[in-house]
Amino acid sequence: MPSFLFYLFAAITLGFGLNVILARNPVTSALSLAVSFVGLAALFISLDAYFIGIIQILVYTGAVMVLFLFIIMLLDIQKEEAKRANTAAVIGGVVLAVVLTLQVAAVLGVFKEGAVTTEQRALSMEVASKREDVAQVKTIQKDLAAGTLPDAKLMGMTLFEQYGFHLQAIGLLLLVGTVGVVVLSKRESPGKPVV
Amino acid sequence: MSVFNLEALLALLGLFVLLLEAFVPSVSSKALAGICMAGVAGVLVLLVTVAGGQDALPAFIGAYHQLDTLAIFYKAFALVITFLVLWLTLEAAPYLSKFTLDGKLGEMFSLPLFVCVGMMWMASAKDLVTVFVSLELVTVSFYVLVAYTRKSALALEAGVKYLILGALSTGVLVFGVAWVYGATGALSFEGITKAVQVGGVNKTALLFGVSFLLAGLGFKVAAVPFQMWVPDVYQGASTPTTVFLSVGSKAAGFAVLTRVIDALTVSGSMVRQEVITVLSIAGAVTVVVGSLPALFQTNVKRLLAYSSISHAGFLLLALAARDSVRVDLAPGGTVAFYLATYLPMTVLGFAALIQMRLNGRGEELDDFKGLAQKSPTLAFLITLAFASLAGLPLTAGFFGKMWVMLGLVDQQLWFALVCAIIGAAAGFYYYFRVILAMFTPEESTEPVRMGALARGVCVVLGCTIIVLGVYPKPLQMLLAKVPVAGKNATGH
Questions:
Q1: Burial call B62-92: b when 16+ CB within 10 Å, e when fewer
Q2: Are B17 and B32 spatial neighbours (Cβ–Cβ below 8 Å)?
């Protein structure tokens, strides 16, 4: 990807991210977050991670943010009153930001200037996955030969084969979550005596 | 029938009960509890009978599931505590159902089954992904269980607190897992063990990740400084749920913690000393922070919450005293033994609270006054449970505490030892304050009654306390098979 596109999308992500916390109107905040996610998705796609990019838009922008907007509009939240900043919260936020920056700096410090990038290295099984059995899959071989990263296929293989058990455990977890929502939000039955 | 199918069986039973409760409204609490308890007991029997004959697991499941002595022990432990919690729920049903929205306790019987499934998976987890998924199953079920008696304002407050702090700790845990994976390149305990031995790992990154990992798990087992939620949540949740949190959740947390610590402190590990130091300090502070506020509690349920924190401290200290083999137990074995003794006394203590509520009394210290006159049996059983929690010789609690302290002496962790002694001494004061209250005469002569089933189960629990306190050898021998870290990762 041309580097100006990277800077464009990075600016969109950061700028609208900033707008989320600066905007006084909650609807503006929510919409800014959605746009910020779109910028992030573009960055993922620029890294050949099409699957994550699309999922980012489908799940976060499409579902989660729209849900946020619905709730904000349903509750009819008005403009936030200008209130004094909570000192403890500000200090906590600054500390978190500093810690996060230090981490990113530490991780980036490990990578050396002039390391091999994906563009310099031909797409092969070695780059795509360390798993032996995946190399046997025909469609994955085809993708690699065509020079595209079979990321959705690789992820599917990992998720449904290697982590098949965990996927089912999460299914059970979601069921419990659903039961919890129903149990805790159901109406009080009118006929019962209340003590 | 293989051991690894048992969780699936239990999950199916949970689904069945859920559907039964939804589509057959006429089914009574008693019937639901009966089905669940029978199912759990059946699975326990299967576990005990089948467990011995297992050697190899099929490859597809062996990658994330193991069946060593520790796993079987914690699976059995999870089943026993689930059974007892179901019984306590049934016992407390007359007053608990007043606090639910529909006046029924439907899901309070099926949700513990899912918690049990999660705890059993945690017991035999081999990698951090499995740990995380099963831990979340347990935690999410607990979010619902804690807030289930919604009409009680305390329960609602407890539910919100537990949800927010629980979600935060989950985030911290995943963050730690990510860093450990980034530093070692491994998610399995085996891989982490190898990575910390071989070297070539960025130590700062690893320690950073380990500190978050321990913080996340520390929240689940209520270790200082992540114990703030305990008193409010334990007091607000319905008593059966409190028992489940205090015993089940703690045991499952320590099952995982045992494996994580074993992997990180294997001989030759680059972070061994740091992890042991953190554990001994956290354990020592936890004992003191749990014990000192308990001295001033007048609410017995809240007192038991603080006592639960203090016991978590002792368990952490058992893990910190790594190399002590004075009682033939590896650190994991000592923890398992301590938990096995902790189960009957805690359940008995809370069961007594339920009996008090059933007799129209509260959970304050004053409500216990004169109990010895009105119900000598109940008073005797409470005395037994609290004496054991304090660690009186000839009760189950004695050996656990003594072994932890002996281990600290062996390892020359003097600061931790002093804290443990302070905690144990404070324990004698606050537990015996309750006992003293019961033997204080009182004028009112309202009788205190116990049902036949309650009496039976409580007497069994009391006998367990005495038997474990007088003759702990069989359990000790059983747990002596728990391997010392790094020497033997699989097999019995």
A1: ebbbbbbbbbbbbbbbbbbbbbbbbbbbbbb
A2: yes
A172 to B150: CB separation less than 8 angstroms, yes or no: no
Q: Which residue of A183, A187, A188 to mutate against B (max B Cβ within 10 Å)?
A: A183
Site of tokens 């600290």: B408
Instruction: State whether B101 and A106 contact (CB < 8 Å).
Output: no
Q: What is the interface pTM, i.e. ipTM, of the complex?
A: 0.88
Q: Is A156 on the interface with B (CB under 8 A)?
A: no
Is residue B151 less than 8 Å (CB to CB) from chain A? yes
* Residue B96 binned pLDDT confidence (cut-offs 50, 70, 90): confident
Contact (Cβ atoms closer than 8 angstroms) between residue B435 and residue B348: no
Are B343 and B247 spatial neighbours (Cβ–Cβ below 8 Å)? yes
CB B234 within 8 A of CB B304: yes
User: Chain A contact for B134, CB < 8 A?
Assistant: yes
Asked whether the bond before B225 is cis by omega within 30 degrees of 0, the reply is yes
pLDDT in tens, B132-181: 999 999 999 999 999 998 888 999 999 999 999 999 999 999 999 999 99
Buried/exposed code over B227-249 (b: 16+ C-beta within 10 A; e: otherwise): bebbbbbbbbbbbbbbbbbbbbb
Measured CA to CA, the distance from residue A57 to residue B348 in angstroms comes to 53
Cα separation, B52 vs A68, whole angstroms: 53
Domain ranges in chain B are 271-492
- Any CB–CB contact under 8 A between A187 and chain B? yes
Per-residue pLDDT of A122-174, as tens digits, reads: 666 666 666 677 777 788 888 877 777 788 888 888 888 888 899 999 999 99
CB-based contact, B162 to chain A, within 8 Å: no
Residues of B in contact with A191 (CB under 8 A): none
Distance CA A72, CA A70 (A): 5
pTM of the model: 0.90
Residue B399 corresponds to which amino acid? F
Alpha-carbon dihedral angle through residues B184, B186, B187, B188, given to the nearest 10 degrees: -120
Which residue of chain B comes nearest to A191, CA vs CA?
A: B102
Distances (CA, A) of A97 to A37, B169, B207, B338, B398: 20, 19, 20, 41, 48
Give how far Cα B370 sits from Cα of B284, B373, B388, Å: 36, 6, 21
- Give the nearest partner residue to A179 out of B129, B137, B144, using CB atoms: B144
Query: Which domains does chain A show, CATH number per domain?
Result: 1-78 (1.20.120.1200), 123-183 (no CATH)
